[in-house]
Amino acid sequence: MIFYICVIIIIYLYGAKNYNYWKKRGVKHAGTIPYFGTNIQQYLQRASYAMMVTKTYKMFPGEKIVGFYRGVMPELVIRDLDIIKRVLTTDFHHFYPKGLIVQPSKVEPMLQNLFFAEGDTWKLLRQRISTAFSSGKLKAMFPLITDRAEKLQVIADEVVNTGGVTDFKELMARYTTDLIGACGFGLNMDTLSGQNTEFRWLGKRIFQRKLRDALAVIAKQIFPKVFKNVNILAYEIEESMVRLVTQVLKRRNYQPSGSNDFIDLMLEVRQSGDLVGESIEKKKPDGTPEVVRIPFDDLLLIAQVFVFFGAGFETSSTTSSYTLHQLAFNPECQEMVHKEIDTVLAKHGNKITYDAIQEMSYLDMAFSEAMRMYPSVGFLIRKCVTPNYTIPEVDVTIDDSVVVMIPVQALHNDAKYFKEPDKFIPERFSNENKKHIPKFAYLPFGEGPRACVGLRLGQMQFKAGIVAILQKFQVEPAPQSLKVPIADPTAFLVEDFVGGLPLLLKRR
């Protein structure tokens, strides 16, 4: 009997051994549960990670930082804008990893991408890949977007003919999948026409949290060393992506084909040779950075295509559908967008062009406001790499490997920074008014060296889709529409909605 009691005590103590971390440093935090920390609701899939971070943000409104435990790992939620600035920009060299990879020494192939990668891999990828998103390359890619936008209008017309009510989250996901097929792979996926393609399956599967996926994340967070060889991504995701990209590479003989898509851009990057540059991690004895070299092999190339597909698919479809949702519930704003589209397109032969999209300032304001109310990524995450780093604003010292979180969704909906945050007011982002938005209170695409590299491409795709719909149609709430959609508690990195976003589509 005594033996079993001792075993239970040992198990309990092991699961709670780190839970004095924030108390010792005088940092407030919520109550903990052994092994699960303060994150039990997310592990049970009753709250997304963004929901948990937002809840933590609201728990102690007078604090600049709040403690959090993801499993047994101490983390920190930053509430103060000056500290957020410090983490993202001023002291970036102390916080350059995102901390999404639990075991940096054992990284699965598809996570060696620009979004997940850490240290030198991230730095060298960023330097080389950022050139793929230049204005000239984006403009060359725009005809691919125009073709899909025109097809979206045809599908929208069919929706009207069959009653007009459709789930815009699904419709814009199909549009985005077609776009990524064209802009990423140079392929005509025909997903908009309802074809059940492997691309559409893959887009759904990446963000679908099955039991296996949830258990893998929980196991790696609670017992990181024991489960270091368990992949977060399911085998079928990696296998499908490797096979799809390899097929395209073989058809092109592993050489750029002049198609202006993302795979072509990556092949151009590879033609430049290995990734070479100054290390962000290693120093010579004299204190100068070492020079590092990383081969840009097939798997590293495929990993970049994977994140182009995954990040572009879910964020663009969520943002565009939610913007249309808000315009449906705010018809006066929709009318402003209609007028702007009509006026601008009239100057461009009623064609959706790259230059026309750039001129639509009110549409940009509506997009920015939708991203404020419901950012597709509700939090930013960074990991400290410096032993005994002291946060000057609060005089709290943290260890290296401690993860800090910037609560984007909470900041965007805080009345301290945005009056009447529950209201859709695009004018907040007029040239005059956006000057008054505190720096680092609005972070839909991050900030600093790790801000979203594909920002302009994402905006271009999104705007073309919105213009394609509103050039010929108007959106209204459907009988089953909810003014405030229900956020999906099972979402992981990218936010989603329970039941989609049904709207009624009518011809203008």
Automatic annotation (TrEMBL):
Annotated CDD domains: CYP6-like
GO cellular component: endoplasmic reticulum membrane
Record's keyword terms, sorted: Endoplasmic reticulum, Heme, Iron, Membrane, Metal-binding, Microsome, Monooxygenase, Oxidoreductase
Membrane topology: Peripheral membrane protein
Domain of life: Eukaryota
EC number: 1.14.14.1
Enzymatic reactions: an organic molecule + reduced [NADPH--hemoprotein reductase] + O2 = an alcohol + oxidized [NADPH--hemoprotein reductase] + H2O + H(+)
Keyword Protein transport listed: no
Gene3D superfamilies: Cytochrome P450
Family stated for the protein in its record: Belongs to the cytochrome P450 family.
Protein name as annotated: unspecific monooxygenase
Classification lineage: Eukaryota, Metazoa, Ecdysozoa, Arthropoda, Hexapoda
